[in-house]
Amino acid sequence: DANAPALEHGSINAKIVDGPGCPDAKTTGLTVTPLLNGDDVDDGLKNDSVEGSKTAWTTAGDFSDLIWTIVQGDDGNHIWNGVDADGGPTDTALVSPALTVSATDHFTIAWKQRHVFEADDQSSFDGSVVEFSSDGGATWTDVATIADPGYEGTIGDTSQQAHNQLAGRAGFVGQNASYPNFDDVSIDLGTALAGQTVQVRFRLDTDEAGGADGWDLDDIAFTGIDNAPFSGLVE
């Protein structure tokens, strides 16, 4: 349909009616809502809607490919989920490709997130931070050293560092106030990294106990970069 709006969620319903071996008609069926009317591009984007068939992001840390996965919601939207795992301490991250920061424009990072991490009234056992590297991932620095990311509390305390590498640091903790809704987060790093090639990572640390839904990320966008390394769906 030439008049159909671009990148619209369609609706496809599959059901069984009097199928062989199925005596009861399944009238409700299974409905999926894929995005239609888009082109799936391998690169050329400065933002990641998590809707393409490929991804430029990589994962790091032990068992990170099990902790970080792309999941689909009931509405057909896809998000990155970093699960708050149990069974052992974890230190993993979702890592961006190399980003060429503009020599003049402000470098900003924006995304949507929600999270549920293990916590009680006294302590936040698990949590997450956002970090950047300007040396190819050899060393990482918290974005909070340049701008306020809106961290919500302290991840444990230093006595818990054997169980969580981020213990004692500020980070995203507990459950965000809007849960299960997403919050918009935006960080303006100004020109502090002007002209450099950097990577950004969403780092998630959990202790060996508990387990929760974890960290959901969507619509990750960058401004003030000269390259466009992300894949996804475009009109």
Mean pLDDT: 89
- SS content category: mainly beta
- Termini separation comes to 14 Å
What proportion of the residues is helical, as a percent range? under 10%
- List the secondary-structure elements in sequence, H or E: EEEEEEEHEEEEEEEEEEEEE
Shape: globular
Low-confidence stretches: none
Number of strands: 20
The major pleated sheet works out as: 8 strands, antiparallel
* Cα Rg: 20 Å
H/I helix tally = 1
Strand-residue proportion: 35-45%
Would you mind describing this structure in some detail?
- The protein is an all-beta fold and 235 residues long.
- The protein is 2% helix and 42% strand.
- It contains 1 helix and 20 strands.
- The strands form 5 sheets. Strands 7, 10, 11, 13, 14, 15, 16 and 18 form an 8-stranded antiparallel sheet that branches.
- A hairpin with a 5-residue loop joins strand 8 and strand 9 (78-84).
- The longest helix has 4 residues, at 64-67.
- It is globular and about 60 Å long.
- The model has no long low-confidence stretch (mean pLDDT 89).
